[in-house]
Amino acid sequence: MADVKELKEKLCYLKKNGLTLDSVDGSAVEQFSKGYMDFLGKAKTERLSVKEAIRLAEAAGFTEFDADQKYSAGDRVYVNNRSKSLALAVIGTEAVEKGVHIAAAHIDSPRLDLKPNPHYEEAEMALFKTHYYGGIKKYQWTTVPLALHGVFCKKDGTTVEVSIGEDENDPVFVVTDLLPHLAQDQYKRTPGELIRGEELNILIGSRPFKCDEGSELVKLNILKILNEKYGICEEDFLSAELECVPAGKPRDIGFDRSMIGSYGHDDRVCAYPCLMAAINIDTPKHTAITVLADKEETGSDGNTGMNSTFIQFFVEDLARMQGGNGYRALRNSKCLSADVNAAFDPTFPDVMERRNAAFINYGAVITKYTGSRGKGGTSDASAEFVGYIRKILDDNGVVWQTGELGKVDLGGGGTVAMYIANLGVDVVDLGVPVLSMHAPFEVVSKFDVYMTYLAVKALFDAE
Ligand code: MN
Ligand code: MN
To answer: For residue 341, which ligand has an atom nearest its CA?
Structure first.
C-alpha cells in the first residue's frame, strides 16, 4: 500500500505559509522592506512617486530616453510621461521585435482631491471642498490627519510645488465628523452615505485676519499665508492639482514586525518591486520594461493612464530604433500586471471563498482574472501563459499563491492587465495581498512584498 503522506505530497497541491519555509532569507526580506518603506514614505502621490522613482533610477544609471538615439544592450532609459507616469527600460541582447518583458504597476492611490474652487469660509472656519478620487469608504477618511501635496500651475508658466503635513513639525489637515451624541440621524443613513461626498470638507484654518471690518477674514488670512509662502492667489487653484492624503510614514505592524501598515500600498507595494527589478537587473535577454501608471483607480483612462498609447508607442520607438516593428514586438511580449489583491481577513471571512482566497505570508498572488459578475471586464490570462509563469516562479524559488477578489457575484475589481492584453501582450496579474485595501491605512506582509520583487525579477531574467 502506498504511503499516504508520500502520495499526498506527490499529487496534492499544498499551500504553505512562506514564513515557515527554511529556503527564505529573512534578512533579505527585512532589507527589501526597509527600502520599500523609505520609498513609500516619500511617494505619497503619483507625482511624488515618479519623482522618487526617477531619483533612484538615475542613481542606478538610467537616462532620459531619446527616441532618435540608438541604444544597445545593457543601456538603461526612462520616459517621464507628464510627471505622473513613468516607463523604464533596460535594453536586452535580443531584438525588441522578439518581444519585451513588461512589469506594470500603478502609482495613483485613492485620496481626496481638491475641487477647482475649493476654498471657502463658514462659521469663521476655513475649509477646502474635495472630490474623492478612486473607490473609498468615505467614513474612513474623517478624523484622520491629512497632508496636502500637489502643484499650482500659474499663468506665467511657472509651477509651484506644495507638500505640507509630512514633517512632524508641519501642520496637518482634517475632515471633521459628527460627535456620537448627535449622530442619531446620521446612523439612519445607509452605510455608503454615512459620510457623503459633499461632507468630505477639509478644515484648514480658523484665525481671522486682524481687521475691524469685512467678511470672510479667516479665508482672507489663509490666502495671505498661501500668497506669502507660494506666491499664489485664489484664482491659481483653478489650474492646480492638489491631493489630500493621510499624513505620516509607514510603520511596522505587530509584535513580530512581520507586516507594514501605511497609506498607499495599493499599488506602490507593487510599483516599488517593479522599479527595483529594473534597477537591479543586469543586461537581460529580452528588453525589460517597468511601467508605473497613473489613473488606475479611476479606470486607467487619460493620457497618463494605461489605456493610453504611452506604452504602445514606447515599445514601438524601441523596436523602430532597431529597424523592427512595434506591433510584432507587442505580440511577442510578456507582462506581469503587478497589482494588489484582497487578503483573507479573519474578521470578515464571509466575503471570501477560502480555497481561492489569498492569504498574507503565502507569497505573491497570481490573479488569473479580475472583473465581476461572470468575469465581466477582465482579460483572463491564458492557461499557456499561466503555465509559463508558474515555471519561472518555481525555478527561481518564488513563493506564490493564487487568489480571487472575493466570492463570485459579491463584488469585484479591475487592474491594468486588460489594457496591456488589448495590445496583444500575454498578461497575468501578480502582486501583494492587502488587508484593509483602499483604507487610509492598509496592511501588507513584508514577505509578500519581497516575493513580488523576486517574481518580477524572474520575468526580467527569463529566457
Ligand atoms: Mn491596484
Ligand atoms: Mn485599488
So the answer is: 1
Residues 233 and 117 in one domain: yes
DSSP 8-class letter at 109: -
Are residues 410 and 271 both part of a single domain?
yes
- CA 113 to centroid of ligand 1, rounded, Å: 18
Ligand nearest to the CA of 106: 1
**What's the CA gap between 240 and 234, in Å, rounded?**
11
Domain stop point among 220, 246, 272: 246
| Cα 136 to ligand 2 centroid, rounded to whole Å | 9
The per-residue pLDDT for 210 is: 87
Ligand nearest to the CA of 269: 1
Say how many Å lie between the CA of residue 266 and the centre of ligand 2. Answer: 5
The domain of 130 spans 111-246
Q: How far is the CA of 224 from the centre of ligand 2 (A)?
A: 37
Q: How far is the CA of 109 from the centre of ligand 2 (A)?
A: 7
Report pLDDT for 432. 98
111 Cβ contact list (under 8 Å, min separation 6): 45, 132, 133, 134, 243, 244, 245
59 with 157, same domain: the answer is: no
| Ranges under pLDDT 50 in the chain | none
What does the pLDDT look like over 16-29, one tens digit per residue? Answer: 999 999 988 899 99
Q: Is residue 258 part of a domain?
A: no
Whether the CB-CB separation of 345 and 357 falls below 8 Å is answered with: no
How many Å apart are CA 293 and CA 313, to the nearest integer?
15
- In angstroms, what is the span from residue 431 Cα to ligand 1's centroid? 9
Q: How many domains does the chain have?
A: 2
Report the alpha-carbon distance of residue 366 to residue 428 in Å, rounded: 7
Which residues sit with Cβ closer than 5 angstroms to ligand 2, an ion? 266
Cell (9 digits) for 197:
461626498
Which of 246, 280, 301 marks a domain boundary?
246
- CB-CB neighbours of 249 under 10 Å: 14
pLDDT of residue 212: 76
Report the candidate in 64, 109, 118, 111 with the shortest Cα–Cα distance to residue 87.
64
Residue 107: count of CB within 10 angstroms of its CB: 31
Cβ neighbours of residue 331 closer than 8 Å, sequence gap 6 or more: 99, 424, 425
What is the reported pLDDT for 261?
98
What integer pLDDT is reported at residue 1 of this predicted model? 60
